[in-house]
Amino acid sequence: MGDYRVKATAAGGSIRAIAAVTTATALRVQNLHHASPVAAAALGRLITAASLLASDFKDAFRLTVEVQADGPLGRLVSEIRTGGLIRARTENSLVDLPLRSDNKLAVGQAVGNRGTLRVTREERGRNPYEGQAPIVSGEIGEDLANYYRISEQIPSAVALGVLIGHEGLVVASGGVVIQALPGIQTVTTDEITDKFQKLHNISWRLSNGETPEDLLREVLPTSIHWLGTDSLEYQCQCSSERSLEIIGSLPTGDLDALIQDKGAEVVCHFCNTAYPISLFQLEKARSDRAIPEG
Ligand SMILES: [Zn+2]
User: Which of 66, 121, 173, 273 is deepest in the core (most CB within 10 A)?
Assistant: First the structure.
């Protein structure tokens, strides 16, 4: 089963629900960054958060979720764009921490609990939108619920999970968000809250073959209206053309220094691909910049 997201409504449209499985993407990102178990768990949760947040675009888009907090992982970024293509990184992917006393990964401690969760939405034909909310616990799920409440004013229950196996690698990753829309009845809210609190171990259940649809069926009232699925997968956006654009946007002094070095290399922080830039390409970028005389 590849990664995907499913959307649904229930209770006559007064509930919106989204669930995603992101195991393959989270494992790919862990391998690319040689990420420790706790870093991989944080990245996996952020990848799922981006997937859930990006469920309502109509046209070409890019959505970025960024967590900047005071934990040792430093800044974490996950980006999803048209076609469900995802990439993610953290500043210090090798940071590892001992398990908590309850034997769980110390994701909150690794991320930090003072900082900001920021979401940037860009869509063709619309003005870019940026929203943010303070970090609550660094566990990402609670932080995303807080973001929905503060920045989008939507009461939301969020559960995100990443299961790390004995080899220290991602075995399952995914999550669920349930949102109460205007007009929802109190009895429905109570019922869902109750069911949601019993929804434990999402990642363990995904690893046992349960699907995002199974998770939603367990939480939602029976009248579920399925709105379809979208595939999700890892893909970076870097290319040699983009690295040339980066070179072209450098200050002239920096460009001259690279010419003196007789070459340069642009390394993508998302996938670690190195793009060599030749002296010829540097000189071309420099001459493109020269202001024509006369
Ligand atoms: Zn890249």
Answer: 173
